[in-house]
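Supplementary notes for students who missed Thursday's class. We covered one full example, reproduced here. Read the sequence, then the structure, then the short commentary at the end.
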Amino acid sequence: MDKFGVANSQKFDVYASRLMPREEFFTSGHRSCQGCGEALAVRWVCKAIGKDAVIAHATGCMEIVSSGFPQTAWKHPWIHVAFENTSAVAAGIETAYRILHRKGKLAHLPKVVAMGGDGGTSDIGLQSLSGAMERGHNFTYVCWDNEAYMNTGIQRSSSTPYGAMTTTSPPGRLSIGQHTWKKNMVAIAVAHGIPYVATANPSYPFDLYFKVKKALETPGPAYIHVLSVCPTGWRSATDLTVRLGRLAVESAVFPLYEVVNGRYRLTIEIPKIRPLKDYLKPQGRFRHLREPEVNFIQQQVLERYDLLLKKCEAPYPEFPSLAPLEEGE
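Structure (token representation):
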């Protein structure tokens, strides 16, 4: 306790953000919607990237709100590319830098980062992403997953969760809304045998920040899948963005983990899983679901989370003090 009666742990909670860099690489003044979780995620990711990097970014929400000529919110060298070729452009940049470095025309290699939404990643851009990962290019890909094509009218994508309402998957007497399950892009990335894959969430900023740092420091391709709450498309209150991100993790809908050279590690443990309805209720896109449907989705979420836990090793093998205590300790 200090002289004001404040516990040291509380003081750390208040001032922990000072451990992060103060310099901003994604600036204010962009035109994202109020409460945009994606803009928050971009800010943290760019802080982790730091200086000396080039970003290739697909068409999507962040491109629309941040790069209207003649203005830009990006301090990095930033290239707007088409939906389908973000990873191909990033691979070309990485190859060019590597050749210049080999010829002695470049002192050191800048970081190469590709970014895209769920549509530009799991749908339209999947082919070029798969090719770049298979060829082993040294770049980091970040997916902003707001679970639909939000900037063009909230159309469903392969990342839209089962039961969600979008303009192209409306609920009705013969429809539950989205009738397919969310594509597991993380598993697809892991299947390529790349050295680093992770899920992240701006509601857990330190977890997000350090995963990006680790991805950038890992030689070869790295993939980070970031859940980005979208109040506009999710039909949620703008002041609930951070809370909804936490509820996604606490309900096991979007677990936070990493896969390092094929080894799974849970990075945020859930001591007690919250009921799925706590996550669904604040979102208007799920308001049509009835109790039997919610129970069905709940069962699927728990089964998939159990499968993930079976893949995971003991949490944080590099931090033995965080491992579960043996009986009698």
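Commentary. DSSP finds twelve helices and eight strands in the chain. The mean pLDDT is 91. If anything here is unclear, bring it to office hours.
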